[in-house]
Design goal:
With about 575 residues, the chain is α+β, with helices and mostly antiparallel strands. It has 3 domains: about 190 residues, Tetratricopeptide repeat domain (Serine Threonine Protein Phosphatase 5, Tetratricopeptide repeat), CATH 1.25.40; about 220 residues, Serine Threonine Protein Phosphatase 5, Tetratricopeptide repeat, CATH 1.25.40; about 110 residues, Galactose-binding domain-like (Jelly Rolls). About 65% of the residues lie in helices and about 15% in strands. The protein contains 23 helices and 9 strands. A 5-stranded antiparallel β-sheet has the order 5-4-7-2-9, with no helix packed on it. It has a 4-stranded antiparallel β-sheet with strand order 1-8-3-6, with no helix packed on it. Strand 4 and strand 5 form a beta hairpin. The longest helix has about 35 residues.
């Protein structure tokens, strides 16, 4: 009978214990989820009495008291009372569960906040380190701890520095670009030691560019910024070469869409390279290798395009660009043979591509000095003058120039002048045609003709100074001007910005390459060298760290007289 009684008592005790634990958990969740402070504390304290071994209850109590203390930081008594209760609650939590990194982290926060108002007996920094050592997956905690540790970088021991860097690398790896920007901002706030951030930066072009943009936007080290942009471009060049090889491999197994995608991506990378290494003295990119890679990529793309449609229009841009930079006879002959085999130069009555076919056929002929073959086609070309649509003028002008050049190549100077004049009739301000006519008159020793051409050139060139009525260019915006030059030379220009004391960081690009990037001391940038080509040249101005107002661009006197004209200006 007594044994039966004990069994019943035991069962009832077990039921009571289970109910107590259940009700404690119930109260814990009610306290955790409520926003009202008094109700929260009431629920949590009742939960604690029912189960004093639940570390999570003390953790939530610590958070509640900490929030109340920080909200009442102007009330000394209320603030200190609640911060002390918060610290006591977090201490109890870590004693019950020493492996809870969040409790160590919260305890460190409470201690560091309290330490701002009065000394504390526990070293809060040790609690941060414990939290860091215990954390294996919480990147928010990693970041917060890393931020605290970076703020004391000078006081850290070597092993602590290494661990801090590992934590921040983890944040960057998991959170990507946003994580990198967060880390860069913390570094700039507390450390600003470039050797430290260089340990953290992922060796990826997009990461280096993000860091360079940050440096420029906040007027930090220009040397560091330019070095990172130079390094990023070198990585992009290597990637472009890799994409070219991948494109070829895909084409070999007839994955044409993949091949086009790889080659197009590689070409975009190449086109985006501004040659920042010219400002840093680096030799990451060999210019000859760069040119060969670009030619190969263009050639691969245009072959794929022609195979897909059999129409010149499809590959027009890439073919034109390729012929402008390719000067190796065997390569030109190979491409010409490829195109002839596909009847891409065949002129068809009423064909929509006839002008384009004439242009490219003549370009191949001229590059291989087949002047007579070009001249023999003059009558067919003259027929085009009467039938071609007006939107074909750009190619008609080039065709007429090539015929004129072919006549000059055979010393038929008068015939050359006839075709230059026809080209000029289509575009009286075409600098290429005017220069050809001037050279033709020079060969004829026709001083009146030379004078006439020079007068026409003088009508379209800009004065030695361009004014912009304080044209505002916003930070990060690129302002473009297309300038007209008569030929290859070195021009030197000065730039004036509004204000006597402004020192914005300004990048200047010319024909796709960086000319300089510098601070406009006193609002002036002087002696920028522009390597010009005949015809249209693009000058780009980009403020890096603040808005600017462009006032004036003036041309310095050169040894050889070249002409420069503002053809078009615009922002992008």
């Amino acid at each position: 009978m007594f044994k039966k009684f004990l069994l019943i008592v035991g069962i009832l005790g077990l039921i009571a214990l289970n109910f107590s634990i259940y009700w404690s958990v119930h109260l814990y969740y009610k306290g955790k989820d409520t926003a009202n402070f008094d109700r929260k504390v009431s629920f949590l304290k009742r939960s604690q009495k029912l189960n004093p071994m639940n570390d999570k209850v003390y953790y939530e109590l610590g958070k509640a008291y900490f929030d109340l203390g920080t909200r009442n930081f102007r009330n000394k008594e209320l603030r200190d009372e609640n911060l002390e209760k918060s610290i006591d609650s977090f201490i109890r939590s870590v004693r019950l569960n020493p492996g809870a990194y969040s409790s160590h982290f919260r305890l460190a926060q409470a201690l560091s906040y309290m330490d701002y108002f009065k000394p504390v007996k526990i070293n809060y920094y040790d609690q941060y380190k414990k939290a860091a050592l215990l954390t294996t997956y919480d990147d928010d905690i990693y970041f917060e701890i890393g931020k605290i540790m970076l703020s004391r970088w000078e006081q850290l021991a070597e092993d602590e520095r290494e661990y801090t860097l590992e934590m921040m690398k983890n944040v960057i790896d998991v959170k990507g670009s946003q994580g990198l920007m967060d880390v860069i901002q913390v570094w700039a706030t507390y450390v600003e030691d470039y050797s430290v951030i260089n340990e953290l930066l992922p060796q990826k072009p997009e990461s280096l560019r993000m860091y360079a943009d940050y440096l420029g936007g906040r007027s930090l080290s220009l040397k560091e910024r330019l070095e990172k942009l130079s390094k990023a471009e070198s990585m992009e060049f290597e990637l472009a070469k890799s994409l070219y090889k991948k494109g070829l491999n895909e084409a070999r197994i007839y994955h044409m869409d993949n091949a086009r995608q790889h080659l197009s991506s590689g070409l975009r990378l190449l086109d985006n390279i501004k040659y920042y290494q010219s400002l840093t003295g680096d030799k990451y990119i060999d210019e000859e290798q760069f040119l060969n890679t670009k030619k190969s990529t263009l050639l691969g793309l245009l072959r794929l395009q022609l195979q897909r449609t059999g129409e010149l229009k499809e590959a027009e841009g890439h073919l034109k660009e390729y012929l402008e930079i390719e000067d190796e006879d065997t390569k030109i002959e190979e491409l010409e043979k490829y195109m002839v085999e596909r009847n891409l130069f065949e002129i068809k009555p009423g064909g929509s591509e006839n002008i384009l076919r004439f242009y490219f056929k003549f370009t191949f002929d001229f590059k291989q000095h087949r002047y007579r073959e070009i001249i023999r086609e003059r009558e067919n070309v003259e027929d085009l003058l009467y039938t071609a649509a007006s939107d074909s003028n750009k190619y008609l002008i080039k065709i007429l120039q090539i015929i004129g050049d072919s006549y000059q190549g055979k010393d038929f100077v008068y015939d050359a002048g006839e075709f230059y004049q026809k080209a000029l009739d289509l575009d009286p301000q075409n600098i290429g045609t005017l220069q050809r006519m001037r050279e033709n008159y020079k060969r004829l020793n026709d001083l009146d003709g030379i004078k006439m051409v020079d007068e026409k050139i003088s009508e379209i060139v800009m004065p030695d100074e361009m004014t912009f009525d304080e044209r505002e260019i916003r930070k990060g915006e690129t302002y473009r001007m297309v300038l007209l030059f008569t030929g290859e030379s070195s021009e030197y220009i000065d730039m004036e910005l509004a204000g006597d004391s402004i020192e914005p960081l300004v990048a200047v690009f010319f024909n796709g390459k960086v000319v300089d990037e510098q601070y406009a001391v006193g609002g002036r940038i002087s002696g920028l060298e522009l390597k010009t080509k005949q015809g249209q040249n693009t000058l780009e101005i980009k403020p890096i760290n603040k808005n600017i107002k462009l006032v004036r661009i003036s041309r310095q006197n050169n040894r050889d007289r070249t002409y420069m004209s503002k053809f078009y200006t615009g922002s992008n």
